[in-house]
Design brief:
With 142 residues, this protein is an alpha+beta fold. 38% of the residues lie in helices and 17% in strands. A five-stranded antiparallel sheet has the order 2-1-3-4-5. Helix 3 crosses helix 5 and helix 5 crosses helix 6. The longest helix is centred in the middle third of the chain and has 15 residues.
């Protein structure tokens, strides 16, 4: 099993999904207080579970990495992404059958959707997240 996380890095915060180009981009976006509270579930694009940690004595210093005990949980990640697609609207995301969509299709469609600066239901405005344009380019060139 490879412990080299494959981008994009996917962060689930209570059902809200965000994609990041790298571990360091994800770490910069996470709030230390939420990391300590266990608010985030983090995966790479293949379902490798990642951990966020706050450095001792440095409350603003968050890192994201795979631990030695990290497991590939692609089925769990796929369920989380399917739930998000259903909530946002499969037609908006471009997934015709989210219930049976494979992880790679979900990741590809969501990378395109989230990289477009999409406005999510219930959110007045959602500025594009830094680095997502390059996630779209990376995924297309893959």
């Amino acid at each position: 099993m490879s412990l080299n996380p494959q981008p994009p890095i996917i962060v689930d915060e209570n059902g809200d999904i965000a994609f990041y180009e790298s571990l360091s981009d994800a770490a910069r976006a996470l709030e230390a207080v939420d990391v300590i509270a266990g608010e985030y579930e983090i995966f790479d694009s293949c379902g490798l579970r990642l951990r966020a940690m706050v450095a001792d004595g440095e409350p603003a210093s968050v890192t994201v990495r795979a631990s030695e005990a990290a497991k590939h949980e692609d089925a769990e990640l796929a369920v989380r992404l399917r739930n998000f697609v259903e909530r946002v609207g499969p037609e908006r995301v471009g997934v015709t059958a989210p219930g049976t969509a494979q992880l790679s299709e979900l990741v590809s469609s969501l990378a395109s959707f989230l990289g477009s600066g999409a406005v999510l239901p219930g959110v007045v405005s959602s500025p594009p997240k830094p680095g997502l344009g390059s996630v779209k380019r990376w995924w297309r060139e893959r």
